[in-house]
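Posted in: Structural Biology > Protein-Ligand Complexes

Title: Requesting predicted complex, zinc ion in pocket

I'd be grateful if someone could produce the 3D structure tokens for the following input. Sequence and ligand are given below.
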Amino acid sequence: MHIPFTCTRCAEEGIAGYPTGYVDLSDDGKHEVQCERGHRFYVILQNPKYELLMDSGALALGDGYYREAVASFAAALEAFWGFYVRAVARKLGAPEDTIPRLRKELKLSERRRGAVSLTHLALTKTNYAPGDDKVSAQLGKRTPTGFRNEVVHEGVFPPRDEAVAYGAWVYETILDGIAELRTHAPEEFELELRTPLADAHQEIFQREPEVRRTTHYIGTLLQGGAGVPRRAFEAVLGHWSQANAWQSLRLEEAT
Ligand SMILES: [Zn+2]
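-- Reply #1 --
Done. Output follows.
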């Protein structure tokens, strides 16, 4: 997967088209790039990991790689669960310096799922029920977890309709979780979004204070579905593909 970027120096000189170029997506969100005219700078991607993984799944779906799509959707949900638990932990009073260890301790998917159940209960006073029963009918009566395990661990090639049903379930589950955080823990939600971004800027600044940094935001599938009323997965998927996914972005200069 690669992301578009614009060189702000070229833009200042009035010679940049958009995009100036593309760079491979980096897992840590930090991208060292050099434009055709030799300007070197860093592009820091603002989108949370779960948005990027969801888009990775949608791109695979569009290309007919249904197994890879399911694997990416599953990874998106797990990334979101980690995000959710950390945001609620902050809401419950966890000091900032405890968050990195929490992140490490929740690397295993079963632990993460358990932590989501508890933090969801603490936050909303209701049990966590992401509609497993409803989607199971579309997954050959398998639970979403059972389906994911078959695809990811046993190498099963799912048909398109099952990959889409699973993707739609992940999409709804993540958007429900975001809505809960926005309602019950809006400050912690924003903080969880901002922290990796601030860390990335700081790390680069300490290493290379003279090099320019820009923050990019990619228009993602989950962003497209987050409005009110929420749009159905397949409708958003169609719009997202037509809108030329990964081409639209907002550009902010680091100060
Ligand atoms: Zn340039």
